[in-house]
Write a structure and sequence with these properties.
The structure is a single chain. This protein is α/β, with parallel strands linked by helices and 296 residues long. The chain is built from 9 helices and 8 strands. It has an 8-stranded mixed sheet, with helices on both faces. Helix 8 links the parallel strand 7 and strand 8. Helix 4 packs across helix 9. The longest helix is centred in the C-terminal third of the chain and has 19 residues. The chain is globular. The N terminus is likely disordered.
């Protein structure tokens, strides 16, 4: 087996590295859509009298039946800024997180504790915005021949639902890791959401060309060509972008290749770390700061 083929297969394995970390999430019961509940390990803030002070993060979860994921219940998580009297801040921007292979919406808050990072961001004077995640299965966030289409689920169902909840769909950020990093870059490149103001990818699982061993990510060479993030790089010229990857991550070489020809400024970089939650947690504060600056 040549080195490049081995690398491609290893990339598929790495894209699912977070699966074991989120196993508990997959077994967690959720309330009917869209009732709010606190997640395990999160204490809902109590209302404080009078104005003043930074907004407080409140977490909700829910579920729905998607026309683009037939036969599957789709769960979601949301962490949003509220005033100190308990009311949700009106028309705040929104950043949508795309999870990795074998993972779920729950990894955003349970694996990354992103609600705590968001609170720290706002406590430090950063722009208030909401973060949300939704189940995408192992579809690689694009239409598949089995009839699923999680990118359309995002564009036509989940994000419009969040708009109806009072978030500003004219100021949308995308961020994700591994498979979800690929998905975030793909969606930002395909111009299906006119409100996208920024995209960030942590350890994105990206390829420069197709290989038959990619059947879990792409159905065919034609499917790869339609969703080729390398070929789509020029479409990101006007979008603020941040890409991070650990120097010990086996994805580092292909991520460097991808970044090398991205047009315009690219924030982020290659820091010590691997393809794991320790690394992702280490860069998440800067990722949310980047999103806040560009969504404000």
């Amino acid at each position: 087996m040549d080195e490049s083929a081995l690398t491609r297969r290893r990339l598929l394995q790495l894209a699912g590295a977070a699966a074991g970390m989120s196993a508990a999430t997959a077994c967690t019961p959720f309330p009917p859509f869209p009732a709010p509940v606190p997640l395990p390990g999160y204490t809902r803030p109590t209302a404080a009298p009078g104005p003043g002070g930074p907004p407080r993060v409140v977490v909700r979860t829910g579920q729905f039946d998607s026309a683009y994921r037939p036969g599957v219940t789709t769960h979601w998580s949301l962490a949003a800024p509220h005033q100190r009297d308990g009311a949700q801040l009106p028309l705040v921007p929104l950043a949508v997180f795309l999870h990795g292979l074998g993972s779920s919406h729950g990894f955003l808050l349970e694996g990354l504790a992103a609600h705590e990072v968001l609170q720290g961001h706002m406590d430090g004077g950063g722009t208030p915005f909401a973060i949300a995640a939704v189940d995408g299965g192992d579809t690689w966030w694009h239409a598949r021949r089995d009839g699923s289409d999680t990118q359309s689920m995002l564009v036509r169902e989940f994000i419009p639902f969040l708009g109806g909840e009072g978030f500003d769909l004219g100021r949308i950020g995308l961020f994700g890791l591994s498979m979800g990093g690929f998905g975030a870059l793909l969606l930002a490149s395909q111009a299906r959401l006119p409100g996208i103001r920024a995209v960030a990818a942590m350890s994105p699982a990206v390829w420069a060309d197709y290989d038959a061993r990619m059947e879990s990510a792409f159905d065919s060479p034609a499917d790869f060509a339609v969703n080729d993030v390398f070929a789509l790089r020029p479409r990101l010229a006007a979008i603020p972008k941040r890409i991070d990857c650990g120097t010990d991550d086996e994805l580092a070489a292909t991520v460097r290749d991808y970044v090398s020809a991205l047009p315009g400024r690219v924030e982020g970089g290659f820091q010590p770390g691997g393809h794991d939650s320790v690394y992702w947690r280490s860069v998440l504060p800067e990722v949310l700061s980047f999103l806040g600056r560009n969504l404000g």
